[in-house]
Amino acid sequence: MDMGVPAEAVAEAYDAWEKGEVSSPLTAAAISNQTIQESMRLLLMVRAFQVMGHYSAQLDPLGLDERPKIKELDPAYYGFSEKDLDREFYLGTWNMGTANAPCLFYLGTWNMEGFMAEGRQVRTLREILERLRETYCGSIGFEYMHIPDSDKCNWLRARIETAERQEYSQEEKLRILDRLTWSEMFESFLANKYTAAKRFGLEGCEVLIPGMKALIDRGAELGVESVVIGMPHRGRLNVLANVMRKPMEQVFSEFAGRKPVKEVHPDDPDTYMGSGDVKYHLGTSYDRPTISGKRIHLSLLANPSHLEAVNTVAMGKVRAKQYYSDDQSRTANMPILLHGDGAFAGQGIGIVYEALDMSQLPEYTVGGTIHLVVNNQVAFTTDPRKSRSSPYCTDVAKALACPVFHVNADDAEAVTRVCELAAEWRQEFKTDVVIDLIGYRRYGHNEIDEPMFTQPLMYQAIKRHKNALQVYQDRLLREGSIPKEQIRGISDKVQKMMHDAFEGAKEYKPKKSDWLSSYWAGFMSPSQHSRIRNTGVPMDLLREVGYAITRLPEDFTPHRQIAKVYEARRNMVESGEGIDWGMGEALAFGTLLAEGNHVRLSGQDVERGTFSHRHAVLHDQKSGSTFTPLEHVFHGQRPKQFTVSNSSLSEYGVLGFELGYSIENPNALVIWEAQFGDFANGAQIIFDQFISSGEAKWLRQSGLVVLLPHGYDGQGPEHSSGRMERFLQMVDEDPYKLPTIDESKWFIGGHLGSQIQSCNWQIVNCTTPANYYHVLRRQLHRQFRKPLIMFAPKNLLRHPLAKSPLAEFSETASDKDPNIQGVRFKRVIMDESSTDRSWDPPKQPEFKRIVFCSGKVYYELAAERARQGKQGEVAIIRIEQLAPFPFDLVMREMRRFPNAEVLWAQEEPMNMGAYLHVQPRLQRCMEATDREVQLRVKYSGRPTMASTATGFGEVHAQEQADLIAKALDVNF
Fold first, then answer.
1. The pTM is what?
2. What total number of domains does the chain contain?
3. Is 334 left (phi over 0), alpha (psi -120 to 50) or beta?
4. What is the tens place of the pLDDT at every residue in 484-511?
5. Are residues 123 and 242 part of one domain?
6. Which end of the chain is more exposed for a tag (fewer CB within 10 A), N or C?
7. Does residue 232 have a cis bond before it (omega within 30 degrees)?
8. Are residues 127 and 201 in the same domain?
């Protein structure tokens, strides 16, 4: 006997023989020749397969992926020779580490008995190697040993290293075959009927459909009730038809490019069609049954060709669903995100990594996302070796300890298996999981592309290669699982049903049957007229809310300065004077909460506020605990009804998340605040492709509010401008068309509702806390939803004149006419020298100039005007709402000052800010009021510049002084 053999090993071997677990004492004697060194080498070899087996897995259906041989998977690397292959080795229980060690180093209490078939503790090395290669180097490559949690690793290993080979029953195989047949024949049917149409088909990864359906079925069995899907364009039509169950007739009809309706009827929201979008960008929702008999709600979000932009939008929608359904365990609502291989590693890094990073943050987690990468092995025309620096496109996910399952798209059963495993992982651990579905792209980037230009060898192989359905049919015939006649019967059935649907599409009348989901019942489309509602509240409620949100627990120790802030806020309520910006916002939030609405605010440093003005979350200076006054507005307030959360340092990802949150339910004020306005450029795709045009393209409303701190304070080019001009340029309003407004009905509604409803979004630059309060409340107090882009102030947060009396927040105005009930947001604020605030104030013929402006520059203009004593010579009008443009109120002001010339003043350079937006609109107002129309509206501001602002303090001060002086100089 080898002196290195522990006595307990020999004892265990003979004990196994006595129990009948091995065939003879000779076997036990043979086991005794297994040294500790051999046991360790065997264990290290097994561990090498667990860690690196995926590098030798058969993942490429085309067989073109030439990988270097992994020496650690060769038994010779561990000192085993050919003669050892038929030696039997003991496979008992080894305890090689501590349970708390990271998985990569933890060898643990490892029992190979479950791994090997038949429960035998003794196997030949040849059998061990065959089972390892079959498990880790077959059609699935498992990556999970990077996860620093032994329980998670062991959970996966128990499902990967099964005692018996996992086989599907004949019924299950028939189901996989049926789903794969629908998937493949849908693509081939479209290819035959619409030969010249782009559809970004799924050919080469058709197995995605049975995989997704298996994933959804397994999720439903484990408690999932709703699934939100975000995906790029490739395969979308197939997913719509075969996963979402969008009627085939409708799919075929859309290939004709017909408009949803011929006429627009103002009283029928189903007739609003917007601009529309290409068919492979559209979404839908559907309730469908699952194999277990449960019903599950599926939502596929519409999204543009910015491939990964929809990711966090889907996550935000899921998070909102979890809030409204009280899904605190995050079991019932699940997101599935589909990705392209190039996008996941390339374009997607900007959003994929951010989505992964957000996945476990307290106010952004959705309980795990299932990521499905449709890996074509080429991004448009770029080979992987030129598009990423890592072996796999999914390697970024390992940074967040996500398990990754690589799978050959030609193996339908392997794909089904990993999809079911992914659903189980998500429901068990509530963290992300990635499936890398490795296939190919049969027709190039789109169906009219010529891929041989750039990938000749790949496409030669593709032409010779059978599709996934043919591969699976051949496999079933070889196995004898399903007879040929039954396979042909499935194909004939699918072909007939598609043909019938194609014929039915000729008579199909396109309609818009899913304008908005049930939560949105009663909300109006842009083709309907909604009345303007009041946003003031009773004074008693204002005071009640004001006291509630300034009350701190007796045992709480706030910071000394913050205690003074809250004391000052309480005094504002008591005195009814001097409401500042932070308190005005808090009153808006508090009153909306008191009315039963949900309020959510997120962004970088929003709890305190970048400029230390909000202090929504207070920190106890002794214990470190926190207190959020707005969570205690009234007794019995729902947990998380008010949510405020500092976000990760992301604009792109977080803004998308909040947009998704806002589209789920209209009864929520959802706000994203940028740290500085110019930081929004990091999220430009969300603004361009979703917020500004989502309603027109996809008929989906959102009341999302975006706060962009903006204003020239000498802080340099990176902290001055929120790039107002970009947002104004995207406004879809005709600058030369006056809206129809009945001034006599202004206070009971008029037609201003239709003006704002027909505009794609609102651009606002408020100058008073009361107006800020009303514009926030206005978001929820109307029968439609529109995005609000607000250029929030910095300087005005503490400006001594930027204060409002409490009466301006109430139901009754404090202006000259007390009969005007129901204070609303003021789109234009009249010149302060006029005390008459009625609709038709008297004319002021003695004024020589009207200075129109927007934002905090007003206070500097007003201060200099007072210093010069020009209150009776120059009128300063604040345009608080830049879009849609307040034509009616601007014309009213022009009529009031019939002899005054018009000038626009702004802090921004001429090529930025609002000047180029307001100029044609001011000219149209001049024309409508019978004024002489200037060729160019007079301008006072910075000259055209490449940079948004100077970085020199002295230069800034001089520029500011010059533009103020020029605006007030009536001789200019």
1. 0.90
2. 3
3. beta
4. 999 999 999 999 999 999 888 888 776 6
5. no
6. N
7. no
8. no
